[in-house]
Amino acid sequence: MGIVFNEEKKVFLLNTKNTSYQFRIAEFGFLEHLYYGRKVNESVDYLPVRLRHGFEANPYEMKKDRSLCLDLLEQEYPGFGVSDFKTSACSVIHADGSNCIDFRYVSHRIYDGKYTMKEWLLPKRKTQQPTAPVNQSASTAIRIYVMTGY
User: What is the SS3 assignment for 142?
Assistant: First the structure.
């Protein structure tokens, strides 16, 4: 059991005794779901097939390039109001009244050991760092840091 990050393919592989879960850092920092099911020991980054439709709203950075459509991308944690029309993972209202949110990968850290929920919560102040695992074991944990431009 454990967590492996393939730096070249930008794929995270999380294995349990019988199952695997995979996702990757896709174009422009979007987290794309790849696989959940029977245990596999290699990347399945070849699985996503993005079919095109007549109308596709694209991320702003794409300009006129139509090769990436968030509505067709199986996002791990989709935002709201930024060209993805599926149900969002959360709802926000910013101080200016807007409600768009666009999550992008910033970094990650893989930890050895298990955490209690209290230690897994985000620090209360920006200067605090996550605490160390309380129970060293064969298990590992991963924390993904995302940011939003809105």
Answer: strand
